[in-house]
Amino acid sequence: MTLRPQRKPVLDAAEEFVDPLKNYAQREYSDDLERSLAEDLPVDVMTTQPAKTVSTDTTVGDVMRMMVDLNIACVLVTDNDRLVGVFSERDVLLKVADQYDKVRDCPISLVMTHEPLVAYADDPVGKALNLMAVAGVRHVPIVDVDGKVVGIVGPRRVIDYLGKHLGQ
Amino acid sequence: MGLQDSIARDTVSELPIREVITLPATCTVRQAMRRMRARRLGCVIAVDEQGKPVGKFTERLLMRLLVNEAGGLDQPIAKFMYADASAVSLSTPLAKLVEQMQSRHLRFMCVVNEQGKAVGLTGQKGLMEYIAEHFPRAVLVQRMKPFLALDEREGA
Fold it and tell me: In chain A, which residues have their Cβ closer than 8 Å to the Cβ of B139?
C-alpha cells in the first residue's frame, strides 16, 4: 500500500480569502444612451427584423422588383443559409443602373457586394454604428457564429432607436 | 456631458456636412445618375436659378424608375423627384433633425444657408459619424473586418 502525499490546503487557516472581483468597478456612463450603445445588443433594443434574404441565383430583376414592392433598401444574399453578400440601392446605382437591360436576368451574385462587413449577435449596438460611421456602410447584417442571418441594422432603424432615447 | 445632452444641445452645424450635388430640375435622370455615381452619393438636389432647392432625386427613385419605367433614364428628373428637398439650416437643433428624419423616413437632408441656397448635404451618415465621434471609447476599438466564420469549429 502506497501513501499519497498529503495535499497542502489552498488556504492556510490564518489566511483570509480575498475575492479577486472585490475591487471590480462597474463602468459608468454619462447617460442611458451611452450605456445602451456599449452594452445592449441590437437584437434586443432595435428592430432587426424583418431581414429579407434571397439565394445567390435569384435574378437581378426579381430582386429589384422585390425591393421596390417591399420598399426596402437592401437584401441579404445567402447560400445554404449562410450569408455571402448584400445587395443594396447603392449597388443598383454603381453596378446596375446604366446596364439594367443587360444584367436584369443575371444572378444577383454577379452584382452583389461580396464579404460584407457584419456584426455578430452578441456585439453591442455601438459596433453596428461603428461600421456605419467608419466604414461608410448603411446596412449591417447581424449573424450568429455560423454565419446565419439573425437580423439587419439599417439607418432607419438606427434613427428610430435614437428617437426613442431622445424621448421622441 | 453625455451623448443625449450633446444631441439635445448641438445643432446641424456640428454634423459632418458633405458637398451637395445640385442640378436644374430639367436635367435627365441619366445625367443625375452619372453625377451621383461619380461622387458616390445617393441623392442630387434640384435647384432653381437662385440655387434654392426645389426637389430631391435619390437612388431609391432611380431603382423604382428602372423597374417600373422603361426608357425613364432620358426623362427629366422633375418628372420623378420628390418635390420637397427636406431643407434644414445650420442652426436647426439636432433633436429636431432626428425627429424629422424619423417621422418622415428621410435619409438625406439638404442644408441651406440664410438665403435659402443649398450649401451642403447631411443625414443618416452624418448622424452616425457624429455619434462615433462623441462616443470613441466603445466605438473605435471594435474590430472591423468581413465575416470570416470558420467552416469548421476550432479546437478538439
Answer: 37, 126-127, 129-130, 133-134
